[in-house]
Amino acid sequence: MAEPEPDFTWLPDLALRPVGGAVIWANDETFAEKENLIRPGPATYRPASFGHKGQIYDGWETRRRRDPGHDEAIVRLGVPGVIRGVMVDTAFFTGNYPPEISVEAIEMDDYRRPELLARDPGWTTIVERAPVCGDTRNPFIVTSEKRWTHVRLSIFPDGGVARLRVHGEGRPDRRFTDVTGLDLAALDNGGLVLDCSNRFYSSPQNLIFPGVANVMGDGWETARRRDDGNDWVHLRLAGPGVIRMVELDTSYFLGNSPGAARLSGLTRDGDWIEILPRTDLLADTRHRFPVQSDAVVSEARLDIYPDGGMARLRLFGELA
Fold first, then answer.
1. For the chain, how far is it from start to end, CA to CA, in angstroms?
2. pLDDT surpassing 90 at residue 47
3. In this protein, which residues make up the domain named Allantoicase (predicted)?
């Protein structure tokens, strides 16, 4: 009889792709893509299904190491929080699973680039190096009560993992716990996109649609610029109001997300003021930025540099 699943598997998976999780970095993904680690649903397998890299696996698989070291992947949690347990699922990996794994976690309140995050000294081990079995759901209980935003899965020395499940309880970012009010840009609250510089691939109206994007086509994407300019979108807000938080969501935009963005607002005096200064962005990330200005604005303009795609734009605040 199979062993019963540990209690933590009842809890939500904080890393799952549909809740905003993303595999932001891996040192290698020669045979199978790192993004498969957090796909919803169990892994699948079709025997003798070969691509140009060999047998196709529904998971993350690295090449065979010929040198010392190990492989690793970093997952940004879609919902940061307390982790109660981790499931390392090696489904269908039999002669190519890693003999051992470990898991580390870190809490970050900025948006540094993944290669810099990988070298940060603040990583804490939450699952000590331990053996795993092939074609098996390998559970590990976590006892830390800390809030985490990222986890790093290390496999020793190489091999394949089908799914990584990070079960736990969400904990909010304390910087935004006092931010309340309305999404002043949302379509269902009365927001409207008035104009944009380019809508070659998809409509800018998608930026203010309800819910989250599920694929790249759910957002706004411009053509590639071949000049020194930048793209922009102009919105009418639900009404004159004060913006307290800006959310710039580049989910599903990987090699085509903007490098940076800037937000301006139109005041009652007819002047455009800066709400969010030009700020570097990451691919496939839901960025949130607090706003200090108390200015009342009725319209907003988002500039992206130089071009690319954005899934959603949220402007939380209060109507004046």
1. 64
2. no
3. 20-169, 190-319
